[in-house]
Amino acid sequence: MSAVSVPLPSARGPAGEALFDALRRSPEASPGPDVRVVERGALDPEDLHSALYCAYELHYRGFTDVDDAWEWAPALLAFRHHLEQAFLEDLRAHVPGGRDADAALAALTYVSPSPGGLGGHLRAEGTWEQMRETFAHRSLYHLKEADPHAWVIPRLQGNAKAAMVAVEFDEFGGGRGDRMHAQLFADLMAAAGLDDGYLAYLDRVPAEPLAIVNFMSMCGLHRSLRGALVGHFADVETTSSPGSRTMVEALQRMSAPDACVHFYAEHVEADAVHEQIVRHDVVGDLLAREPHLEPDVVFGIEATELLEQRLADRLIGSWRRAESSLLPAPVGV
Ligand SMILES: [Fe+2]
Ligand SMILES: [Fe+2]
User: Fold this and answer.
1) Which ligand number lies closest to the CA of residue 142?
2) What is the tens place of the pLDDT at every residue in 221-233?
3) Cα–Cα distance between 191 and 207 in angstroms, integer?
4) What is the pLDDT of residues 157-191, one digit of tens each?
5) What band does 109 get if pLDDT is binned at 50, 70 and 90?
6) What are the CA-CA distances from residue 169 to residues 150, 232, 255 (Å)?
7) Are 164 and 170 in contact (CB under 8 A)?
8) What torsion, rounded to 10 degrees, do the Cα atoms 91, 93, 96, 98 define?
């Protein structure tokens, strides 16, 4: 059984250095990370997303070398706010900003697997090594699969809440720990000869996969972004079934181990059902109660598509240059 939590990773720039230096001391003994570091703007995405991922991790499992009391320390939250604002500004500057949730969801149906997307590349010409790298990138989410979305449950009412919980119940294994999707992904990692430990690849994955999880965490933890969280979730459930089928075909072409195929095969069936529940019962009911949230739902969909495309571009770009898409291991690790 792998450890519950791990130590802080290496800093990737001034934001990470300021944050991690503070977190290694007790919250009572530290004035907190210096917000001037993040107020100046123009943070490198690697620094921004690594620091933000670690700030959010305090709400999940924390770190072995960080006092749990940091989770709600005002100085930590003030610092994190600047990182979140930089992330939101980046997203808002790069999405179209539509207002029709049905149209945004309908558009996804016809682009899965999207041309230029990761699944399409892996199915057509990907290597087993590229697939293993993809697993490592995805492990930052799938080993905490469905956790970020659970934050939204108290922010929903009626059918939207009941349907959201029904989908989450499946994600969490329907009452069985060995069937939790996070556990199925740990089984996949082990079968692929990768480290299945929680956050084992935190130092090795670049900004793009971290940004995808940061978006979920940010939307889950802010009630003001509940519409975006639901939009993001609807996007994932809509694209997951065809996307998972593409992955099954890619894995079968590579003669991958059964546990690797099983994770995606499970999502082909489950997410075809989840798509319908999320679209009609979660999105539909939320917008019937709170119609002013529709632009936020669309923002969640558009931002998810943007972040997934950035990940695909980064990975496929590395592979076209015959390079690994993983960052080199930090010195001394
Ligand atoms: Fe799942
Ligand atoms: Fe699902």
Assistant:
1) 1
2) 999 999 999 999 9
3) 26
4) 999 999 999 999 999 999 999 999 999 999 999 99
5) confident
6) 10, 18, 31
7) no
8) 70
User: How far is residue 210's CA from residue 233's CA, in Å, rounded to a whole number?
Assistant: 17
Helix (H, G, I), strand (E, B) or coil at 234: helix
Q: Are 303 and 280 in contact (CB under 8 A)?
A: no
Neighbours of 331 (CB within 10 A): 6
Note whether 290 and 227 are within 8 A (CB).
yes
List CB-based neighbours of ion ligand 2 within 5 Å: 271, 274
Q: Find tokens 């076209």 and name the residue.
A: 320
Q: Which pLDDT band holds residue 107 (cuts at 50, 70, 90)?
A: confident
Distance from residue 233's CA to the centre of ligand 2 (Å)? 9
Residue with tokens 């991922």: 53
* Alpha-carbon Rg for the chain in angstroms: 19
| pLDDT in the model for residue 112 | 59
Rounded to the nearest angstrom, the distance between the alpha carbon of 108 and the centre of ligand 2 is 16
Residue 134 has pLDDT above 80, yes or no: yes
